[in-house]
């Protein structure tokens, strides 16, 4: 599932291709992927230009010139492709936004969605989300307070979107490895030093992952060499049995809070 680095990568790449362009047509092949009727969706989207693209947690927000916003959550299996029809991957498309000869294809939206909202609804829509990892008001102390709220495992607390927004299964494991902490640790067992280390690791790891295009490998457009570049840089996620880059012991897979989790049982404490 795309997480903060993937969505931030998409935001940056799409901003340079879509902002200022007018949506000339819309094709909807799966009505459950949208939240209004196809007729209303087309009426309020076609003819509007994309004024900016934002990200909140794992969502992308396509702001239109009529102050309507397309809110995208790709969920598990969802992805996008931007380009001409002949370049599109051979995958089923649920929604297509057309900009003349180029299109934004929304693929695999079986669990994900592209919903239409007013700008004024966004505050309520995202009211249950926690702060972003890069929120300037999120200090190590405030992060520690939030992670301790439920006295759960570190893994479970990091992926809880009401605690922190944007981190999922992949980056929770990568952050824990970077910090030298086991995902199965209870947050109540962590010291102030542990939380300070975790805070630095979170920012450094997410920054690195975004810079290398996230871990999801399907190119966003023909010739895209950035997207998915972090996959080969993952230290533990989906690396079961491979040697740890720090100590050489095999990476282990565990179930932590009913979620698959990868770590080094030797050099993470």
TrEMBL record:
Residues 235-269 form the FPG-type domain. One of its GO terms (molecular function) is oxidized purine nucleobase lesion DNA N-glycosylase activity. InterPro entries: FPG_cat, H2TH_FPG, Znf_DNA_glyclase/AP_lyase, Znf_FPG/IleRS. Keywords: Glycosidase, Hydrolase, Metal-binding, Zinc, Zinc-finger. PROSITE patterns: FPG_CAT, ZF_FPG_2. Signal peptide: none annotated. Pfam families: Fapy_DNA_glyco, H2TH, zf-FPG_IleRS. Residues 2-123 form the Formamidopyrimidine-DNA glycosylase catalytic domain. SMART domains: Fapy_DNA_glyco, H2TH. It comes from the Bacteria. This is Formamidopyrimidine-DNA glycosylase.
């Amino acid at each position: 599932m795309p997480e903060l680095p993937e969505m931030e990568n998409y935001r940056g790449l799409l901003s340079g291709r879509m902002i200022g362009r007018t949506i000339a047509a819309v094709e909807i092949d799966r009505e459950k992927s949208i939240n209004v009727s196809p007729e209303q969706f087309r009426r309020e989207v076609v003819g509007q230009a994309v004024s900016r693209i934002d990200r909140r947690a794992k969502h992308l927000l396509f702001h239109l010139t009529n102050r309507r916003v397309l809110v995208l959550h790709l969920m598990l299996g969802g992805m996008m492709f931007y380009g001409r029809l002949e370049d599109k991957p051979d995958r089923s498309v649920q929604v297509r936004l057309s900009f003349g000869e180029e299109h934004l294809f929304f693929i695999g939206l079986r669990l994900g969605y592209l919903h239409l909202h007013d700008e004024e609804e966004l505050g309520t829509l995202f009211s249950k989300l926690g702060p972003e990892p890069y929120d300037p008001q999120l200090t190590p102390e405030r992060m520690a307070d939030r992670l301790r709220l439920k006295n759960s495992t570190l893994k479970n607390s990091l992926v809880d979107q009401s605690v922190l927004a944007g981190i999922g299964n992949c980056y929770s494991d990568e952050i824990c490895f970077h910090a030298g902490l086991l995902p199965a640790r209870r947050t109540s067992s962590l010291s102030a030093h542990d939380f300070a280390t975790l805070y630095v690791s979170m920012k450094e790891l997410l920054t690195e992952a975004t810079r290398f295009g996230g871990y999801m490998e399907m190119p966003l457009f023909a010739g895209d060499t950035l997207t998915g570049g972090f996959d080969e840089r993952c230290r533990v996620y989906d690396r079961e049995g491979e040697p740890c880059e720090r100590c050489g012991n095999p990476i282990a897979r565990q179930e932590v809070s009913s979620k698959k989790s990868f770590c080094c049982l030797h050099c993470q404490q």
